[in-house]
Amino acid sequence: MPSHVLRPCARPGCPRLVRPPDRYCPEHVAWAKQRAAAAQRHYDEHERDPRVVEFYHSPAWQALRLRALQRDAYLCQPCLREKRITRADTVHHIVPVNQDWSRRLDLNNLESVCRDCHARLRSAEASEG
After folding, report:
1. For the chain, where are the E strands, in sequence order?
2. What is the 3-class SS of 54-79, one letter each residue?
3. Phi then psi for 3, rounded to 5 degrees?
4. Other C-beta atoms within 10 Å of 76: how many?
5. What are the C-alpha distances in Å from 62 to residues 55, 87, 89?
6. Planar angle of CA 9, 10, 12, nearest 5 degrees
7. If we measure between CA atoms, which residue out of 97, 128, 120 comes closest to residue 110?
8. Residue 120's closest CA among 97, 111, 46?
9. Which is it for the CA torsion 14, 19, 21, 26, positive or negative?
10. Residues 88-106: pLDDT tens digits?
11. pTM score, two decimals?
12. How far is it, in rounded angstroms, from Cα 73 to Cα 69?
């Protein structure tokens, strides 16, 4: 008996079935990555504050990001609070940069998070603001 029910590939019109947690069939994985990268580029170019984009590409941010991940042992802190062990791949500003620019390089304002938790945190911030 299979552990997961197969579901359709998330590419519109694709009839292939995939096993969760995969969302795309092997043929459409690259398409999905290109689409996500294009969406991120559009967001960076047209919606995000240029000063914030520049900050996230700065050597100071890259160094501090690494320090935060190392401090948190590359573990997602929200998941850890829920007694789950999940690898962190993102560093989240607890007080967002666009709300308090002066705290952008404050290690105490940073938390290592997994991709799912970061999406949830960003969504919660957007609904508050």
Report:
1. 7-8, 17-18, 90-93, 110-113
2. HHHCCHHHHHHHHHHHHHCCCECHHH
3. -80, -25
4. 25
5. 9, 18, 13
6. 100
7. 97
8. 111
9. negative
10. 999 999 999 989 999 999 9
11. 0.67
12. 6
Per the CB < 8 A criterion, the answer to whether 74 and 88 are in contact is yes
pLDDT digits (tens, 9 = 90+) for 104-118: 999 999 999 999 999
Please count the residues of the chain: 129
Among 44, 104, 100, 98, smallest CA distance to 68 is for 104
pLDDT at res. 2? 54
Whether the Cβ atoms of residue 50 and residue 38 lie closer than 8 Å to each other: no
What pLDDT, in 10s, does the model give residues 12-44? 999 999 999 899 999 999 999 999 999 888 887
- Which residue from 104, 6, 92, 10 is spatially nearest to 51, judged by alpha carbons? 104
Q: Beta partners for 92?
A: 111
